[in-house]
Amino acid sequence: MIVVGVDPGKEGAIVRLAADILPLVTTMPVISGAKRNEYDVRAIRDLLLGCSHVFAEKLQPMPRQAGGTIANYNRGYCMGLFIALCTALALPFTLVRPQEWQREMLAGIPGEDTKQRSVLAAQRLFPLTSLLPTPRCRRPSDGIADALCIAEWGRRKLGGAP
User: With contact defined as beta carbons under 8 Å apart, do 67 and 18 qualify?
Assistant: First the structure.
C-alpha cells in the first residue's frame, strides 16, 4: 500500500509513504516562469501514479483582508488540480481539514504554532527523513512536515502500521 500525503500550494510538498521504506519526499513540483511559477502537472501526475490513496489538505478560503482574491484563486486552483488528477487517474482520494489530521498527529506536542508542532511531529515519526527542501537550507520545511503528517494520518486511517 502506497499512501500519498499532500500539503497543497506552491510552497507545499508531496510525500509517498510505503511500508518498510523511507518516505519519498519532494517539494511541490513547479516550473519557473517569467512572472510566476506554475505547477508541473506532469511531475505531480508521475508522483501520484501507482499509489493506493491520496490524502490532501483541504484548503479553506481566506478573508479578503488576509490575502484577498488572488490567494483564494491560487488555493482553489491547487485543490482543483489535485481533484482532477486523482479523478483522471482513478485514484481514491480524501480531502482532509487541517484540524482533523492535526488533532491526532500533533497530540501531546506542546506549543501554539501548528507549523512548528508539525515539524516536531514529523521529526519524531520519521527521524531518518530530511525535512530540508534543499541541501543548502538550514530550516526545516513545514510543508514537508505537514505532508508527512498527512500521509501518516492517512495510512493510519486505512489501517496501516502506526
Answer: no
Q: Which domains does the chain have, with CATH numbers?
A: 2-157 (3.30.420.10)
Question: How far, CA to CA in Å, does 21 sit from each of 14, 40, 90, 129?
Answer: 16, 26, 25, 11
**To 5 degrees, how large is the angle CA 123–CA 147–CA 55?**
135
Region of 90 please: left (phi>0), alpha (psi -120 to 50) or beta.
Answer: left
Q: Are strands 30-31 and 38-39 parallel, antiparallel or unpaired?
A: antiparallel
The Cα–Cα gap between 86 and 78 comes to 12
CB atoms within 10 A of CB 3: 25
- Reading the block at residue 152, the C-alpha cell is 501518516
Q: What is the pLDDT of residues 49-81, one digit of tens each?
A: 999 999 999 987 776 666 667 777 888 888 899
Copy the grid coordinates of residue 22. 523511507
What does the pLDDT read at residue 64? 66
Let me know the angle formed at the C-alpha of 75 by 111 and 122, rounded to the nearest 5 degrees: 35
Amino acid at 115: K
The C-alpha atoms of residue 43 and residue 58 are separated, in whole angstroms, by: 21
